[in-house]
Design brief:
The complex is a heterodimer of chains A (about 170) and B (about 450). Chain A is α+β, with helices and mostly antiparallel strands and about 170 residues long. Chain A is about 45% helix and about 10% strand. Chain B is built from 19 helices and 14 strands. The chains are: A alpha+beta (about 170), B alpha/beta (about 450). The interface between A and B is large, with 43 and 56 residues.
């Protein structure tokens, strides 16, 4: 659920705005609203979620109404409307992956991280959720990690454990 | 070995780079098309090839192109549909990951044929790695003069951009995709007008699947007639099949259309049989939306003749005993899989992905999910099976876009072929929580019906 009254102050860096400009140039004159989805991805890569205040700024940048941004951000599932762990693990839970054990991976993650789907671990490092088909059915079970959306395929409980350890040691 | 047109060089190291792709004959189609053919001649070759849209609907690509309106002074667009999100389908992701230039080459030839000066590849947002691969390949192609102003000195200009989606299955529907590309919610549009008349920004637009566009390259290189010689009947050429589920070797395979289904599942050249020595229980042959078939009807028609991997053969028997080619997402279920659980899973998917515009789909998908959840978890009643049948029947055909049909078909076909298993869940609620119904008699071939005289 989107909470419009909540305000987390954000600043867009000049590097980010330069990327905005490049994306805006891809569309014909007057059709710059097309840049909205890519811009929201850039915002999420920067802040790891999409605060309402950032949506308002994107609206101002594209010279459109804030509601036009809210309705898009709430329609598409990739935009996080609240903060996530530094590593947001998204496990595919659709049919083909379930045939090869995706449900086991989800419950294993819950035990391993000690949090429920959608919650963040106490150290702020991890959150996870089940998502629908990621188009990697032949290599299932799969999970992806935003914001780079790196894919991890043919998961087993052991490979998930190793992945979590590797991510913990990265910092 | 069958002929490979798209994946011929898949194992060549560095085939994702322009240099190696060129060494293997890449971009010949661009040279041939731009220097020796007119746009009309290219459309004619694609028509002759018999190529049918590889995204799922199977509509002839050349015919779709010929519908494109060409009013004076109005821009035309080619948009590639790389929103691949049909459960069971991952061929486009595979192609873009390993041979990105095949798509770019196809985009240049197709854009030239349609008179597009700016083209977009709409890639589903989750495929950020593929977006990065494509953007790198586009930069390479542009630096080498295959994109940009005055390509090969022919005076033809083309800019190609990659657009990320936001994670919505519905954006694979072409008008929802166009809405999304315009920066809006992915709500499908009412047709007509079709995109060929009023598409992106209200301009004439063609939307084609990744594989369809990549297939234009061999069609131009070898000619439409040569392409049409491959395959069987109206199913011409080769097709990428994404194989998943309980198979020894899941993955992406390029097949000549007309390959027997049995060979595809069991031969070592393809899937290598069912994993862990188990038996096949059922398949979904063309992505989650198409009807599920029990093993016997997967391998053979009701009359016992072998079923082939082709548009016509897979749909032989209609929905009573057949299915559809769809997007080529082939999902195999072994004897330990529960059809009720899988149907519930698919229904949850369609409920999650319904855009919410049409009441039958918005309400019906959620209702089916709830009823199936109830049955799967041991709380169902016999009326629930009839209720499910009733709901799916009221969704099908009553929505703006085919998502409603796609949600209804898996439920309808599961009840049609596996009603016993649904009823077992209801009669044995406790047992169904710990045991599988198993393969039952589905592996026994159906006897040929004796023809009786009508009195």
């Amino acid at each position: 659920m989107l909470k419009v009254e909540e305000q987390t102050p954000v600043e867009f860096s000049s590097e980010l705005l330069a990327k905005f400009d490049e994306i805006k140039s891809r569309y014909p004159e007057g059709k710059h609203k097309s840049a909205l989805l890519p811009l929201l991805h850039l915002v999420q890569a920067e802040f790891l979620w999409v605060p309402t205040s950032a949506m308002d700024k994107v609206a101002a940048y594209l010279n459109i109404q804030p509601i036009e941004v809210y309705e898009v951000a709430t329609f598409y599932t990739m935009y996080f409307l609240k903060p996530q762990g530094k590593y947001a693990l998204e496990v595919c839970r659709t049919g083909p992956c379930c045939l090869v054990g995706a449900e086991k991976i989800l419950s294993h993650l819950e035990n391993k991280l000690g949090v429920k789907e959608g919650e963040i671990t106490a150290d702020g490092l991890f959150s996870f959720r089940g998502v629908e088909c990621l188009a990697a059915c032949g290599f299932g079970p799969v999970l992806q990690i935003s914001p780079e959306y790196t894919f991890y395929e043919n998961l087993t409980t052991d490979s998930v454990d190793k992945l979590i350890e590797d991510l913990k040691n990265k910092i | 070995m069958s002929r490979k047109l798209l994946l011929e060089h898949i194992n060549v190291p560095g085939i994702n780079t322009l240099e190696v792709y060129r060494q293997k004959g890449g971009y010949r189609a661009v040279e041939k098309a731009l220097k020796t053919l007119t746009p009309e001649e290219i459309v004619e070759e694609v028509k002759k090839s018999g190529l049918r849209g590889r995204g799922g609907a199977g509509f002839p690509t050349g015919m779709k192109w010929s519908f494109l309106a060409k009013p004076e002074g109005v821009a035309r667009y080619l948009v590639c549909n790389a929103d691949e999100s049909e459960p069971g389908t991952f061929k486009d992701r595979y192609l873009m990951t390993h041979i990105p230039h095949a798509l770019i080459e196809g985009m240049i030839v197709s854009s030239f044929a349609l008179g597009a000066k700016v083209s977009y590849i709409y890639v589903r947002g989750e495929m950020m790695p593929q977006i990065r691969i494509l953007e790198k390949a586009i930069a390479e192609a542009k630096a080498a003069g295959w994109l940009g102003k005055n390509i090969l000195g022919t005076g033809y200009d083309l800019e190609l951009y990659v657009q990320p989606g936001g994670g919505a299955y519905i954006c694979g529907e072409e008008t929802a995709l166009l809405e999304s590309l315009e920066g809006k919610r992915g709500n499908p549009r009412i047709k007509p007008p079709f995109p060929a008349i009023a598409g992106l920004y209200g301009c004439p637009t063609v939307v084609n699947n990744v594989e369809s566009i990549a297939a234009v390259v061999p069609i131009i290189n070898d000619g439409g007639d040569e392409y049409a010689k491959i395959g069987i009947g109206r199913s011409t050429g080769t097709k990428l099949i994404s194989a998943s589920g309980n198979l020894v070797k899941p993955g992406v395979y390029e097949i000549e259309l007309g390959l027997p289904v049995e060979e595809f599942i069991y031969s070592d050249e393809y899937c290598g049989g069912i994993a862990n020595g188990k038996r096949l229980k059922a398949t979904v042959a063309g992505g989650s939306s198409v009807p599920i078939l029990p093993a016997n009807l997967t391998l053979k028609y009701a009359n016992g003749e072998p079923r082939l991997m082709s548009y016509e053969s897979l749909s032989e028997g209609g929905f009573a005993t057949g299915t559809m080619m769809g997007s080529g997402g082939f999902i195999a279920f072994d004897e330990d899989q529960c059809i009720v659980r899988n149907t519930w899973n698919f229904s949850r998917f369609y409920h999650h992905e319904s855009c919410g515009q049409c009441s039958p789909c918005r309400e019906g998908t959620g209702w089916m999910e709830k009823v199936l959840h109830k049955i799967e978890h041991g709380h169902g009643s016999m009326e629930d099976v009839d209720l499910l049948w009733d709901i799916q029947r009221k969704i099908e055909g009553n929505t703006i876009c085919p998502l409603g049909d796609a949600a209804a078909w898996p439920v309808a076909s599961a009840i049609r072929h596996f009603r016993d298993e649904f009823e077992w869940h209801i009669k044995e609620p406790a047992k169904s929580q710990t045991q599988n119904y198993g393969i039952a008699n589905y592996a026994v071939p159906i006897e040929k019906e004796p023809v009786t005289e009508e009195k």
